Amino acid sequence: MSRFAQLLLYAPRVGRLRGIPVHLHLSFLLLALYLLLTTKALWVDLVLVLVVFTSVLLHELGHCEGARKVGGLPQRIVLWPLGGLAYNSHEDTAKAELIVSAAGPLVNLVLALIAGGILLVRPDVPGLDQVRAGASTLLTDLVALVATVNALLFVFNVLPAFPLDGGSIARALLRFPLQWKRATLVVGGLGVATAGALIVLGIQWRAGILFGLGLLFLFVSGSEFRKAWRFTPLPEYDDLMPHERRAGS
Description:
Blueprint: H1 3-9, E1 13-17, E2 20-24, H2 27-38, H3 42-69, E3 73-80, E4 83-89, H4 94-120, H5 128-132, H6 138-157, H7 165-204, H8 208-230
Parallel strand pairs: 2-3
Antiparallel strand pairs: 1-2, 3-4
Helix pairs in contact: 3-4, 3-6, 4-6, 4-7, 7-8
């Protein structure tokens, strides 16, 4: 790997959470610089970044705890401005894949429900536009942001496309009746279809983020589909992942 590539991927360790090293990608510095130069409501945007950061961190910690639940070993968490990655080692079974993949979105769902429950007893909580105008209290601002951010993270992450958790969750559920190869083909196809829809919407609405996500889903889901299509398992090991048992190995 070139030094330039290493710099792009560099994420120094900033601490440990439940014994798991937490790394922060340097692109967070670019995000901070962008906010300083462009925002008209700095404190609101900084609170928003903090809520997203914490929610994503807890999401990834959920994956790590899911890995521990199935006898796996959490290795590290890497946080980016728009998401995170939890590196875990665990058995590649349908049950393990389901528990580990679902644990992250479940954390966001619980946080969204708790914050939403608070909002039900505080109907005077304003919208985000009012928050930015300073027409509300700090507490209600924070609760509204926690509810919104975690609801969006949950909905986004359960979309049935790779590399999202929803793709792994759907594959894990389908592995029980279909086993690994056919389950991956089905979910990979769904991911490609989802990618196509996002690309079309991104073009029609001139939304670069939708177009970019569509390209990402297309690449990763297509890659998973091709890997499953080429995989020929031994009859006695037909539900294991390709790197475990392959015909002729």
